[in-house]
Amino acid sequence: MLGAVFGLTSFAQCFGMDAFGSMLLSINPFYTFIMTMLPRILIGVVSGNLMIRFEKKKTNQTLGYTVTALTGVLTNTVFFVGLLLLLFGNTEYIQSFGENTIAILGVLVSTNAIVEIIVCTLVITALMKAIRVAVKRMSH
User: Fold this and answer.
1) What is the residue-averaged pLDDT of the chain?
2) Angle at 43 between CA 39 and CA 46, to 5 degrees
3) Distance between CA 112 and CA 4 in Å, rounded?
4) Are 120 and 69 in contact, with CB atoms under 8 Å apart?
5) How far apart are CA 47 and CA 62, in angstroms?
6) Which residues contact 59 (CB under 8 A, 6 or more apart)?
7) What angle (nearest 5°) sits at the alpha carbon of residue 117, between those of residues 111 and 118?
8) Which tops the pLDDT comparison, 56 or 94?
9) What average pLDDT does this structure show over 21-41?
10) Residue 107 phi/psi, 5° resolution?
């Protein structure tokens, strides 16, 4: 559910707040919708299923939170960039970046992904630990 809200928020930004998203929207609104929605929905599906497995195996909670957060970030990045290349890779706009389009996207994505991985993994792990403590206190 939250993934869909995240996706809708990303799609809404394509209506003027995000220059890159606006350009993609002008090329193909349906593809832009798919590209903004699917990766965000998959974050919840993949992360939720992974966390369930960690809880069933009684794995260390911190490890479960950390791996799940990392997997969620990677799911979003891989699917977003993959769909960008699949759906828009042959468009004039993406091709206008030149012969090194893939290399340019690779540098941008890897730089952004590294920051996202570090920040999200640390923040999500800390938040989940705090939420777990709060839930335990409320249930007693």
Assistant:
1) 90
2) 120
3) 22
4) yes
5) 14
6) none
7) 95
8) 56
9) 96
10) -65, -45
- Distance (Å, whole) CA 98 – CA 63: 42
Measure the CA–CA gap between 50 and 82, rounded to whole angstroms: 22
CB-CB neighbours of 91 under 10 Å: 14
CA atoms within 13 A on the CB side of 57: 11
In this prediction, residues 95-114 reach a mean pLDDT of 77
Both ends of the chain: CA-CA distance in Å? Answer: 29
The predicted-structure confidence for 49-87, as pLDDT tens digits, reads as follows 999 999 898 878 889 999 999 999 999 989 998 999 899
Q: Which amino acid is at 79?
A: F
Report CA dihedral (85, 87, 89, 91) to the nearest 10 degrees: -160
Alpha-carbon dihedral 102, 16, 114, 109, rounded to 10 degrees = 0
Alpha-carbon distances of 52 from 49, 75, 95, 96, 128, rounded to whole Å: 5, 17, 42, 44, 14
The residues, any chain, with a CB within 8 Å of residue 13's CB and separated by 6 or more, are 21
In residues, how long is the chain? Answer: 140
pTM of the model: 0.82
